[in-house]
Design goal:
mainly alpha
Length: 398
């Protein structure tokens, strides 16, 4: 049973997590509209996605450090007000480069969210795995719904409208966030610091590095696939009972397929408190890898079905990763840990967006999925090493 404060925290993080992925995913469903609007190509729009994502990821590292010192709730409020205001500023712009600059600032504001929210949950919730799972479900619903919302709203009211709508929601959530109390990790004594320092050895450090490498490769698959999945669906799927243009068709089918990611978050959150996190992580990555290779050669109903399976297992990795960070790091270093995690997945991993755009222009969209499958293979190799090293249950870093 959640306390009143825990309910407020979950309410804030659920709403804010869905919204951050609306900001992140607003562009990909609008790619066909924006190619026409700005007379551009996949590469340049992929470059804007990369600009957003680099800001989204690079800001996560200092955000994690700040969350440890100033408290995570303040950073959530900063994200909501900042991203909301910049999103509203999309309305009057006229050039692609101005849009890219604004998206970079939105990404920078959003960068504070994941380290702050995961730190807040880790510090305050009793059943961390379940809380991370519920929090992840909210993010998955945001990821799943944004192709449909952005495609339909953009097709009817213009490509600027989804940005402004999400910005207004952000301002309202920012006002609500001010009602949530701040929380900090309990300070540790000098003797505790000494004990923790003695537990840091070469084997522990290597295990942490392997985990972050696996997360980086997985982050590349996320950004590469999510940038072009709505357009890919719109060109590879034909459903006679859905008389829609390619933009709305791609967005609608992508939303239907990605909705299964919420179930993946839920089941992983329930299982990870009771079973080996490393083994669950490995199974999810391997199945996701197989699905992506099949997506590269699929069309119509098979493509939709395999994307549903892919989304279930890909998004199930997120509560597992978050729990591993909470196990590998002490409370006063978890903000830093989440900052590194999201810096690597959203920042470094976002390189895949511009690379995938280059590949799509020259080899076709299906080649993007082959490239992403190779990234999955790299992640699976790293996670397999984690499973082999899983005898060490607690890794503590200063």
């Amino acid at each position: 049973m959640l306390t009143k404060e825990e309910k407020k925290i979950m309410g804030l993080t659920i709403g804010s997590h869905s919204l951050v992925h609306l900001f992140e995913g607003v562009l990909p469903p609008l790619i066909p509209l924006m190619i026409t609007q700005f007379n551009t190509d996949y590469f340049h729009l992929g470059l804007i996605v990369t600009v957003f994502s680099y800001a989204f990821g690079l800001g996560s590292l200092p955000a994690g450090i700040i969350a440890d010192r100033l408290g995570p709730r303040r950073l959530i409020s900063m994200y909501l007000f900042g991203a909301g205001l910049f999103a509203i500023l999309v309305w009057p712009i006229q050039t692609l480069w101005t849009y890219g600059i604004i998206m970079g600032f939105i990404g920078l504001c959003c960068s504070t969210y994941h380290p702050a929210a995961n730190t807040l949950i880790s510090l305050t919730m009793t059943n961390k795995g379940r809380a991370f799972g519920v929090h992840g479900i909210a993010g998955s619903l945001g990821v799943a719904s944004v192709p449909l919302l952005s495609a339909w709203i953009g097709s009817i009211f213009g490509w600027r409208t989804p940005h402004v709508l999400y910005g207004i929601i952000g301002i309202f959530l920012g006002v609500y966030s001010l009602s949530v109390a701040e929380h900090h990790a309990k300070p540790i004594g000098e003797s505790d610091k000494k004990i923790q320092f003695l537990k840091l050895d070469r084997k522990a450090f290597i295990t942490i590095c392997i985990f972050f490498l696996s997360a980086t490769a997985l982050g590349m698959t996320y950004k590469g696939i999510m940038t072009f999945l709505p357009t890919y669906m719109g060109t590879r799927v034909e459903l006679s009972f859905m008389n829609l243009n390619s933009v709305t068709l791609g967005g609608t089918i992508t939303t239907i397929a990605l909705a299964s990611g919420a179930l993946g978050q839920y089941f992983a959150g329930r299982l990870v408190d009771r079973h080996s996190a490393e083994k669950l992580y490995l199974g999810a990555v391997i199945i996701g890898m197989i699905c992506v290779f099949i997506m590269a050669v699929s069309t119509n109903s098979l493509l939709v079905v395999i994307t549903v399976i892919y989304a279930f297992f890909y998004f199930s990795t997120q509560p597992i990763q978050n729990l591993l960070v909470s196990r590998y790091l002490p409370p006063h270093r978890q903000g830093l840990g989440y900052g590194i995690l999201f810096f690597l997945t959203f920042g470094v991993g976002s390189t895949a967006a511009v690379v995938s755009g280059y590949i799509a222009d020259r080899l076709g969209l299906e080649a993007v999925f082959i490239f992403m499958g190779a990234c999955f293979m790299m992640s699976a190799a790293m996670v397999m090493l984690l499973v082999l090293r899983a005898g060490q249950r607690r890794i503590v870093v200063n």
